[in-house]
């Protein structure tokens, strides 16, 4: 199976495993990856997903060998609707996803990482629009998400040149949210996922969706949308549990213990 789906408590760990092509994605892999995230979305017991690649490599993007062979069963789909060429990149999930990046996250692999909410990158990770070298366009949201994540200037630097940037430069750009030693990205991503999963979920998810939905709205509509998300959260009663926790003072001790290894 090119995609592995495992659970660790409330965390889903989704792994791309095609070592012979640096975890590049063909059509069956894209379908399996999208289906894995649909399964994560449906499972109420799961709060956060971690996306990673096997054997110290995140993802080399679309499978160029399959594209060159022209096998219609394996070439990534480029239709205007449905899933993106590398799978889940047109989805807006209700729950967060963290990318654990070792090795190369390039071309469609970079677009996958940019689709995730957060990116934990190893120091020797490499991000880049490598498809620039082969005349292949970004079609999994890269031209949109990169500009939104790191600003238009940094995004154009990557999009126009196709150069690779190291984990350190990616961290300075704001593309990587956490920079960790080589071989430790998955460990740190899971720890971060557990921290996020431990928070009250209704407010967290509502605020997250509001932050995504505001991009296509006017300021007035975005503020109204935020209000509706907030009211839906208040209706769950979650806040009262939080206020009770605050009143006990126990949260002070818990917060001190919550550290990422």
UniProtKB/TrEMBL annotation:
GO terms for molecular function: catalytic activity. InterPro entries: ClpP/crotonase-like_dom_sf (IPR029045), Enoyl-CoA_hydra/iso (IPR001753). It comes from the Bacteria. Pfam families: ECH_1 (PF00378). Belongs to the enoyl-CoA hydratase/isomerase family. This is Crotonase/enoyl-CoA hydratase family protein. It comes from Candidatus Abyssobacteria bacterium SURF_17.
């Amino acid at each position: 199976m090119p995609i592995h789906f495992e659970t660790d408590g409330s965390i889903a760990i989704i792994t791309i495993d095609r070592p012979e092509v640096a975890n590049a994605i063909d059509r069956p892999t894209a379908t399996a990856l999208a289906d894995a995230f649909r399964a994560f979305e449906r499972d109420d017991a799961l709060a956060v997903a971690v996306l990673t690649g096997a054997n110290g490599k995140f993802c080399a993007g679309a499978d160029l060998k399959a594209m060159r062979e022209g096998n219609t069963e394996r070439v990534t789909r480029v239709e205007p609707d449905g899933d993106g060429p590398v799978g889940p990149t047109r989805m807006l999930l209700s729950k967060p996803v963290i990318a654990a990046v070792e090795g190369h996250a390039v071309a469609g692999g970079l677009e996958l990482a940019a689709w995730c909410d957060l990116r934990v990158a190893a120091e020797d990770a490499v991000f880049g629009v490598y498809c620039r070298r082969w005349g292949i366009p970004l079609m999994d949201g890269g031209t949109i998400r990169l500009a939104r994540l790191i600003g238009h200037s940094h995004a154009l630097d990557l999009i126009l040149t196709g150069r690779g940037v190291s984990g350190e430069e990616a961290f300075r750009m704001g593309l990587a949210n956490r920079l960790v030693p080589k071989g430790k990205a998955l460990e740190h991503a899971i720890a971060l996922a557990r921290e996020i999963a431990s928070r009250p979920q209704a407010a967290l998810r509502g605020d997250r969706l509001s932050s995504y939905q505001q991009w296509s709205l006017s300021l007035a509509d975005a503020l109204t949308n935020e209000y509706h998300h907030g009211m839906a959260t208040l209706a769950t009663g979650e806040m009262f549990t939080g206020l009770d926790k605050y009143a006990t003072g126990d949260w002070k001790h818990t917060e001190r213990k919550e550290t990422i290894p």
